[in-house]
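Why do we bother with holo predictions? Because pocket geometry can differ from the apo form. Keep that in mind while you read this record for zinc ion.
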Amino acid sequence: MIDYERSLNRAFEHMPEYLTTDVRFSIPEPHIFIEGKTTVLKNFLEIADVVNRDPTHLLKYMLKELGTAGKLDGNRVIFQGKFTAETIQSQITAYADEFVICSECGRPDTELVRSDRVLMLKCAACGAHRPIRKRRVRPVAAKDAIEEGGEYDVRITGVGRKGDGFTQIDKYTIYVPRTVKGEIVTIKVNSISGTLAFAEILERKATE
Ligand SMILES: [Zn+2]
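The structure, written out:
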């Protein structure tokens, strides 16, 4: 019995990964931070890799949907303007629904093929194919202000005279005590006064 369970466990360990992503595959959560007037998506290439599409195709789609400019920078993409992780994530999900997921069986094992100049999504799992829909361009307005009580992922860009780290979002300089330059942190803005804001640190994410 024990041997049986052991070999069963071993069988599960050796299952190809796609079997465990039966219906929905899991797209990595976008890791973003705001830097100045830009939004940095750190794991862009990883996401493009999981959806198994040309990164430039995905990027072009996102720029069009977000109504902004941006560029590839190593593994990351830098978008002009400020976008929340939710906004970025919803664009990626919409991309997957349109260009990756089979509408018949819901699986991502598909490829894009051109047939009579029409772009088709062809499913390797069930054989279904469908044309790619034409979509309306629907720009998402960039939020250009912070608000009291709001939480943001930011990179600390400097340290003030009193030793508090600070960062810049749009016109605001936000002071965050107990941080150092180069740290990426989640902050909560407690108060805003003119173009100065004061925040507390909620979580340290990384140091660049
Ligand atoms: Zn299918």
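Confidence is low (pLDDT under 50) at residues 14-22.
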